Amino acid sequence: MSAAGPQVTACVLIIGNEILSGRVRDENLAFLATGLNEAGIRLRQARVIPDDAATIIATVNEVRRQFDYVFTTGGIGPTHDDITAQCIADAFGVKLVLHPDAARILEAHYPPGALNQARLRMAHVPEGASLLPNPISRAPGFRLDNVYVLPGVPQIMRAIFNELKHRLVGGAKVLSRSVSCALGEGALAKGLGEIQDRFPDLEIGSYPYFRRNDFGVTLVVRGIERERIVAAADEIKTLIRALGGEPTEGLAED
Amino acid sequence: MSAAGPQVTACVLIIGNEILSGRVRDENLAFLATGLNEAGIRLRQARVIPDDAATIIATVNEVRRQFDYVFTTGGIGPTHDDITAQCIADAFGVKLVLHPDAARILEAHYPPGALNQARLRMAHVPEGASLLPNPISRAPGFRLDNVYVLPGVPQIMRAIFNELKHRLVGGAKVLSRSVSCALGEGALAKGLGEIQDRFPDLEIGSYPYFRRNDFGVTLVVRGIERERIVAAADEIKTLIRALGGEPTEGLAED
């Protein structure tokens, strides 16, 4: 999709064996995708990688150079399998250090004597990182350069992201409009391709759905300029009617 | 995790702008992760990538050399945004050709005259690919070398995967046992790390959970040998009791 103005891009790294084993279903990607889009940032890739230091370090170094923003989730708790902070430090070639503000936050949070060595790990960040406040369980995330390091627990990840979101610098926001109908994709394909050819500045996606006794397709038009999107959506509605279908605005899933 | 016997690995590529835009939440990864684990194949990475030819080709070529199996989902329908089959052909440096069996399957499926040019695209596969039968909507997936190309619609993806699963050659199946308790992760961390050190052949994960008026942690022990897993889980239960907690078997989410 060609766009007016520079595109601001992001990559999400979901760090955690539990997602790859199928034990836990990721709940963070869709939230981040939506939140980034609202901030005018295009999520261009996401990776789910295991709790393996070499993989985390190599992946972080690959994607932080390729995308404007990188967001990681998972692996910043107090247990032995929480290795993300150390890996980020290694990726940047800096030391993992105790952040005095993070230590103070945890000291104030735990009852006297409960801030043990393990919990104090959560106050360690790569040298030069700034803290990302955690309004729920206090142990902060952190940012180093363009890499934002968030926890994996969805409630906490969301709270931290919502606090930092307003400071992200995005480009033009991607707008979209959807039209659904009960026709098959194959009936629409030719005309739809022709509309896409006439609107190279837009991205037109075709998504079939199947439900009990019901199937059809949702056509999604995405782009920067509202007038163009409306014009393309109108052409899609005309196409659907010409093929004997009945277009409905919005997502079929709604 | 060190394991008895060779590990068989897999990577999943989820191809689709709709996942990266946040419009659609992926439902395929958790299914494939579980199904591969049952087949003794370890899902070691997953990527969500856009409907962009250069990205798809480069990613397929990177991961097909790095993992034993690659499974892609999405982009094999009849519309202009379905570019996966062509990209797989390009990645392997072969032509996209009409597969006569696929053409026959579609001819038998559609009413006379309905098998238009767009639908016939779904009978095109990279030269040398074999078909993966689709018991629902007929348009087949395909396999080329170690790359399995599946549709994105979850119901159809699952049906195709369930048909091919029995032909996958896996290694030793990863077994797991879970113990949950209402203690904080930070209280358990030291003892848990010591248990991990005594069981280097196992992978011990610590996953906090937060619910209304309820929080705690689930500890998951994974590995190949059941006796070792049981022994580690017993040590974890002893640790929990020593810290004043009450271990419960199984996942807290259950």
Description:
The structure is a homodimer of 254-residue chains. Chain A has 254 residues and is an alpha/beta fold. Chain A folds into two domains: 159 residues, Molybdenum Cofactor Biosythetic Enzyme, Chain A, CATH 3.40.980.10; 75 residues, Ribosomal protein S10 (Alpha-Beta Plaits, 2-Layer Sandwich). Chain A is 37% helix and 28% strand. The first copy, chain A, has nine helices and twelve strands. In chain A, the strands form three sheets. A six-stranded mixed beta sheet of chain A has the order 2-1-3-8-7-6, sandwiched between helices. Chain A has a four-stranded antiparallel beta sheet with strand order 10-11-9-12. In chain A, strands 4-5 form a two-stranded antiparallel ribbon. The longest helix of chain A has 17 residues. Chain A is elongated. Chains A and B meet through α1, α2, β2, α6 and α8 of A and α1, α2, β2, α6 and α8 of B.
CATH topology of the largest domain in chain A: Molybdenum Cofactor Biosythetic Enzyme, Chain A
Q: What would the principal axes of the Cα set say about the shape of chain A?
A: elongated
Characterize the main sheet of chain A: 6 strands, mixed
The gyration radius over C-alpha positions of chain A equals: 22 Å
Beta-strand residue fraction of chain A = 25-35%
Q: What is the chain-wise order of helices and strands of chain A? A: EHHEHEHEHHEEEEHEHEEHE
Low-confidence stretches of chain A: none
Structural class of chain A: alpha/beta
Q: Mean pLDDT of chain A, as a whole number?
A: 93
Q: What CATH architecture of the largest domain in chain A do you see?
A: 3-Layer(aba) Sandwich
Strand order of the largest sheet of chain A: 2-1-3-8-7-6
Name the chain pair with the biggest interface and residue counts per chain.
A-B, 71 and 69 residues
Distance between the termini of chain A: 26 Å
Q: At the fourth CATH level, what is the homologous superfamily of the largest domain in chain A? A: MoaB/Mog-like domain
The number of E-state strands of chain A comes to 12
Oligomeric state of the chains present here = homodimer
Tally of domains of chain A = 2
